[in-house]
Amino acid sequence: MDRELSSVSAPAEGNNIKEKLAEIQEADIIIGIPSYNNAKTIGHVVRAVQAGLAKYFPDKKTVLINSDGGSTDGTMDVVHKATIEDFDSIFISHHKKPFLKLTTPYDGIPGKGSAFRTIFEIARSLNAKACAVVDSDLKSITPEWIDLLLRPVIEKGYDYVTPYYLRHKYDGTITNSIIYPITRALYGKRIRQPIGGDFAFSGELASFFLTKEVWNTNVAKYGIDIWMTTTAVANNFKTCQSFLGAKIHDPKDPGADLSAMLFQVVSSTFDLMETYHDVWKTIKGSAPLTTFGFTYAVGLEPIIVYVDKMIDRFKLGAKELSTIWESFMPGNLKSFLCDELSAIPNDKFHVPDSVWVEIIYAFASAYHKKIINREHLLKSLTPLYIGRVASFVIETYNSNATEVENKIENLCIMFEHKKNTLIDTWD
Fold first, then answer.
1. What is the DSSP letter of 29?
2. All domains of the chain, ordered by start, with CATH?
3. CB count in 10 Å sphere of residue 280
4. Positive or negative, the Cα torsion across 51, 55, 56, 59?
5. What is the pTM of this model?
6. With bands split at pLDDT 50, 70 and 90, how would you rate the model's confidence at 57?
């Protein structure tokens, strides 16, 4: 095996990162992997990235950046050691430039957004033509993901590539119930995974991201994905999506306490509505994105959901939070939630699409008008979100993937249909 296929790995802290970047000077492709205590999974991700770059971009100068949030489980050591030992076994024998790896802690608010900021800055410093970021807990990433994410940027002139993958019907519930439908209705683009976690973007867009003063907000935590997607679309950067197959990662029980993530993602979405109000208020309907890749069915790991526990959380919230909800919700909506729905047996529990859309739009308007403390407002959304997910689980228990996707499509259409209600109450 030609020695040019070997990787070069180096830690980089403080001024050392500047020295390493000065040595590298320029790069064609940057791959960023944010991490925090991901030693169990990140080795596979690094090897998949290395194989993908060697197979599909053998003549490009490539750098992998592990931007770490202070891991204590040896994550950064795993990144240094992870490498492809036998390229012949994956049918790669042609020459390529060295695969460079840098690991560096990031500065700022602990969170994925701060990690991305470091990656953007390195991409700008190295004048990278194309960049991609992938999650560190991925179990299903393959070398083909790297090709599918980067090639639209390198060969087709796209600025932003979002992932399109299949997930278990009870995975990604924040995406399916809130972020995908409202992003689609607001900005008119059917971006199926606006907070998917695995994206590619041009060097120009990476530099544009750095011009925005958002790094001391929730964008620095969990809000970075929806911020990147919205910023790209609202500023007319050329956007597409690539089908990546299955998304299998460390599972998150949709009935577990996701209140912090829900708050940060939804608040970022609502903040962006303030920023781009003049953009979204004029958009009607939605259009599909160009999609690259070969679409196929996949098997997915099951996710266990405890519906009764979730409904109990909703009913408790309806008792404790009714005075908050009545301060901004229409009376009939508040009455339905706190009186009718709270009294119904669990097996009959159902939150209709129309009601759910009214809830989200009521929260968006109340957030805009600052009717109550914004943090208190959005934290009162958690039991409603849990209740909606429980309703969705009951409704789709015996549904296959196609049927579930059709139900999500119907929800999106309802968001689009009721958008004028949002505009009226907003203004």
1. E
2. 3-292 (3.90.550.10), 307-426 (no CATH)
3. 23
4. positive
5. 0.91
6. very high
